[in-house]
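Order emerges. As here.
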Amino acid sequence: MGNAKAFLSINRKEAGYRPVLDRITDFGEVEQTLNSEDRQLQASRCMECGVPFCHWACPLDNLIPEWQDLLYKGKWAEAYGILISRNNFPEFTGRVCPALCEKSCVLNLEHEPLTVRENEAAIAEHAFLEGYVKPNPPQQRTGKKVAVVGSGPAGLAVADMLNRKGHSITVFEKDEYIGGLLRLGIPDFKLNKEIITRRIDLLKAEGIKFETGKEVGKDLSTKDLLAKYDAICLTTGAGVPRDLPVEGRELKGIYFALDFLKQQNRLVSGQTIPAAERISAKGKKVLVIGGGDTGSDCVGTSIRQKAASVIQIEIMPVPPEGTNPATPWPSYPNVLKTSTSHLEGCERRWSLATKRFIGEKGKVTGVEVADQLTGQTTVIPVDLVLLSMGFTQPVHEGLLDELGVKYDARGNVEAVKPNQSSIGKVFVAGDVTSGASLVVRAIASGRQAAKEIAAYLS
């Protein structure tokens, strides 16, 4: 521990964000960076607590105090070595993780937690910039072949860990890009897609094969997959969005959030979307139904598309600010969260239930909502509605039904043994078995699945 009293004299300092009027004109990353000196000072604030609650809260068991100390001492390469030993993709989590570790940091008792997430991103970027990150393919191959179906964070973690052990890995992705929701679900203003491409290029150089545009169960039969590979890992995510089956749902102008976000990510990547298929918020009154992170992403995207107005509604009551006795430290607090997108020009409303959609000539023009506390109803004028209420389960049709895997009560693929489906050689990781969750939990699940597959193959 280099500076035992730093937390007493150095305050938390965040990198901050680009000015609102600047960032809403493009899809570049909104978060800025600190210089190396300030970043090292932030790392010095770590108290190396006797009980590191940050480590306890992290699904990846990140050795947070260890790499904070190395960062403070300017040992960037060593810090990256410790970081990557527990987290395959710190450049992803350093940008989009909700930082469970910071909420459990002892300094968060004073609302001044260590800047763990930003420090993590800084170490990863420094490592790539200075050339610490190089391909390291296995010296020998085992002759065992593993198919990973789905290329989100869980699938990439499985592939990376098993490839390191010398198994031959092929990742199948139904979309045209590798990365799953990291690539097509998260807006570029939160995660620049070149960051993903950089890591994928590294994994390719280490021997992992990627096949895009291949939907198993459609473009490739499950029978062939079972016959060709020694083990299969399903990491297809929870792809069924929660719908809102109320009067008027059939009206035009109502879309699922992910359809909207995927289209914009493709546009940013240079693809051309036919005008008839475009979901555009330009000049429209937009209503986002659902108060989570995906809803926030819809807000930021709508603003960048130059919406006339954006309203986000949530059925739950507004959470308390700052602290919540119902979720005390070191638990993750249920408190009001204000994202960068909310600060760009969004009206937020709470305790509102959607009763029906109203339309003219087949197009949505309004949404009737009811106050959960008073029962009073009002109509919100709209031109575009984005449904962002989470996901219910993985898609059963096709791959999963053809395999004949067992489902749990929620419709997820059941793990009858740790990370193993009811079919012996078919394993599971990430949202396909846990339900929709966080990127950091998906990576952790992928790492655990790789351990189980390696044991099975041996």
Notes: Residues 439-457 form the longest helix (19 residues). The chain has a mean pLDDT of 97. The first strand starts at residue 145 and ends at 149.
